[in-house]
Each structure stands twice: as structure tokens, then as C-alpha cells.
Write a structure and sequence with these properties.
This protein has 178 residues and is α+β, with helices and mostly antiparallel strands. It folds into 2 domains: 47 residues, Ubiquitin-associated (UBA) domain (Helicase, Ruva Protein, domain 3, Orthogonal Bundle); 118 residues, Elongation factor Ts, dimerisation domain (Tetrahydropterin Synthase, Chain A). It is built from 7 helices and 4 strands; from the N terminus they run αααββααααββ. Strands 1-2-3-4 form a 4-stranded antiparallel beta sheet. A hairpin with an 8-residue loop joins β3 and β4. α1 packs across α3. The chain is elongated and about 60 Å long.
Length: 178
Amino acid sequence: MQVPVAMVKELREKTGAGIMDCRNALLEVKGNMGKAIEFLRQRGLAQAEKMSKRTASQGVIGAYVHHGGRIGAMIEVNCETDFVARTEEFKELAHYLAMQVAALSPKFISREEVPPEADIDPQESCLFQQPFIKEPDKTVQEIVAEAIGKVGENIRVSRFVRFGLGDQEGEGDAQGQI
């Protein structure tokens, strides 16, 4: 089957995946755009799992202060190289994750950090289980996995802190790794 260049371009624009990845996905699903998007998403999750063991010592601190200056958040997002850390896409991811922390006030990064005796809803208290504020049909963990697939490097959220005017010191901060 021959894949039209226009289809490859459209899939690339929708997913941000590489040209050859888009072409191969379209070949795999015989030109079905919806299935190709899902194929790339699943592949990104598989890549994210493989890359999770790799060291991520570079990165950025993302920050967000809500209008009016009464709520703010900072988050440390790491990757493997400073090249990726300097890209606009990576900085935007850090900014949106900081916005997520400010908006939904998670207490932990992932389920693994929740103490066994804690009686909490992971979707509410764990950053990675929350619906992403920009795309509510996806979780934050899926958004990070997609970013891993796009940049080809491991990405970790190391820690975050949320500040609200009048909050007690130390309230709403978390540290850890995925």
C-alpha cells in the first residue's frame, strides 16, 4: 500500500510523531487515521515504559501563577539532555504541568507514593492519575508518555509545590519520581 504524503503530514501535525513513525503507523493500519493515532499513542506508552529506567538529570523548573496572584505552582520536570530541556515543547509541558498542580492541588506524583494506610482517591490526589486540564479525556501520565514518545527521551516529574495565599507552610508539596 502506498501512503499519500498528505496523510503522513496530517498525522504528524495531529500527533507530533516523527515522519517515519507516522508513515509506518499508517501502513500498519491500512490508512485509517483514527487507528493510526491510537497506534502511535500505544507505541508512545510502550516507549515510555522502556525509557523509564534511563537517567533524567537535565530539565527545567516550570512555574505558573494564576491571575490575581493568589495561587501558584512550581514543578521540576527532568529529561536526559539539555537539548530537549531547551525545546519549546518541553518548556510548554512543564508550564502546563505547573498549571495542573495549581488548578487541582495533587498531593502525590504517582500512586506508588501514596502510603498504604492512606484513604484517598488516587485520581484526585495523584498528579499522574488526574485528567489533564488541557485534554480531559487523557490523564497526565498519558500526556507525559506522549511527550516521551515525541522527544525520544525519558521524562520524569521529580517534585512540585503549590502555593495558595493563606495556606500553611509545606502544604501541597510532593517529591518523588514516576
